[in-house]
Amino acid sequence: MAFSIWRRGLLLLILGFAASCAVPVAALAQKLPGYKAAAGMLKIGPNPERPDAEIFHVAYTLKAADTAKRPVTFVFNGGPGAASIYLHIAAIGPKTIVTAGDGSFPASPARLEDNPDSWIAFTDLVFIDPVGTGYSRMLPGPDGKPGDPRSYYGVDSDLNAIAGFIRQWLTVNKRWGSPKAIAGESYGGLRVVALSRVLTEQYGINLNRAVLMSPEWKLPSLAEPFPSYDLLHAATLLPTQAAIAAHHGMSTLQSDAAGYKAAEDYALTGYLTGLATLGRMDAQAQSAFYAQVAGLIGLDPGLVAANRGRIGEALFSTSLLAARGKVLDFYDGAQASDNPTPDKRDELGVLPRTINIFAGVLLSPFMDYVQNELGYITERPYTTLNLEANVLWDRKSRVVGPEDLAIALTQNTDLKALVLHGYHDMGANYFLSRYLLEQSVRSPSARDRLSFRTYQGGHMFYLRKASRAQTAADVRRFFETPP
Questions:
Q1: I want to staple 179 with a disulfide (CB 3.0 to 4.6 A). Which of 26, 140, 208, 270 is the partner?
Q2: What does the alpha-carbon distance between residue 170 and residue 206 come to, in Å, rounded to a whole number?
Q3: What is the predicted pLDDT for the residue at 342?
Q4: What's the rounded Cα separation, in Å, for the pair 354 and 86?
């Protein structure tokens, strides 16, 4: 189906964006509905009457839709310090990069194609770049100079910025009457948790759906600074390690649902109690315990014994395929590469992290798309990852914990939450999400509105075409099924 090209002035009139945007839209796959696309800026600030920053965003809205029934989903990535480019053109936007579909990256320069699994099929989409990412920047102050962006580099200020943007977008686009949803990946998943509560309590916005993609929880450890007391980290990591070992054919378990379930059951029973009672075991019982763990995660029993049954992410990643000279990726253990530092077997800092180089893969096709198809031209550099923001981030806050989602679900009975993970992600392992949220969300009604899905792949499980398609189907069902 062909789509008309809208003139710049007409779009400004209809969509009311606060900054320049131009929106020609290319022909799409027949599976996707006809939609309008708009790239632009909205001004925000602690005082809405005196904004001090502007947020770049790209919005996709269905043509001639009944906005009283058509949901709108606000989407962001994480970092903190990451733009929304990852979810935008690699996962759920109408366009996506061309890949082999097995989790690997395409060669540069990557190309875009129509995304048959785009969420535009069932919800409008607004991709948000927080201040300091993408094209989003501080506005000039009275002295003509941009303000200090560090005022937005923190948990609470970031939440208020995004919440303020959502309120402003709903007002400008006359969408207060639409069902509302948010979706975020990694640290963005933690944003979803906090915003589910903040939007209701401080902005009068009751959400209908919340999607957490690979939320990167930090397990609060009562053992610090004595990690030998910490058993839960190892217990929640074990199922991911077993899934990775099974993927590489090195586990006693199969790489299927039954195998994953067996690892999960063992993690919180025999494994956890075994770690807790090692000091009470005789040598034979200890040997049997280490052998069972080693079989599950594909390592030598001697190595497992030397580490008293607890194998951290770095040691596991550098040891599983060491005989092949390979090291696993921290965020996708199904991906392996030559190990340039085989002598550093227990250092997280040396592990390859594909998420850090993925920005370069995405930037070229994204720039072509924004400039040539969306018609948005600016001399600003597009910041995919703001490392300075990440380093300076003020992480002190009373929110962004699993209990906040529990409170949000209890307060807002129209809200449903869906947690999505990849089996092979060591940076944000799926079983930790299940453990934390199942312990926190205790109200029967709230628990009924919380669900989990796990897919083949790592942190960005949508790089596998089969996982991306299944994700889209699961999220659509989640949106269309009443609470």
A1: 208
A2: 13
A3: 73
A4: 12
**What does 99-111 look like in DSSP terms, one character per residue?**
--SBSPPPPSSP-
- Higher pLDDT pick, 361 / 263: 263
8 Å CB contact between 479 and 445: no
**CA-based nearest residue to 116, from 477, 479, 470:** 470
Please write the tens of the pLDDT for every residue from 271-330. 999 999 999 999 999 999 999 999 999 999 999 999 999 999 989 999 999 999 999 999
Asked if 127 and 57 count as a contact pair (C-beta separation under 8 A), the reply is: yes
Structure-token pair, residue 90: 């690699």
Q: Is the pLDDT of residue 102 over 60?
A: yes
Residue 225 preceded by cis peptide, ω within 30: yes
Cβ–Cβ < 8 Å for 251, 242:
yes
Which residue segments constitute the domains of the chain, with CATH numbers given? Answer: 8-218+358-480 (3.40.50.1820), 227-350 (no CATH)
270 within 8 A of 296, measured Cβ to Cβ = no
- The pLDDT score that the predictor gives to residue 141 is 86
Which helix (H) or strand (E) segment is 209 a member of?
strand 209-213
HEC profile of 134-182? ECCEECECCCCCECCHHHHCEHHHHHHHHHHHHHHHHHHCCCCCCCEEE
Q: Which amino acid does the sequence have at 214? A: S
pLDDT at 224 over 60: no
Q: Which residue has the tokens 């208020």?
A: 160
DSSP letter string, 353-404: -HHHHHHHHHHHHHHHIIIIIS----SSPPBSB-HHHHHH-B---S--SHHH
Question: Tokens 């303000």 identify what position?
Answer: 147
pLDDT band at 352 (very low <50, low <70, confident <90, very high): low
Exposure pattern of 294-310 as b/e (b: 16+ CB <10 Å)?
A: bbbbbbebebbbebebb
Cα distance between residue 316 and residue 219, in whole Å: 19
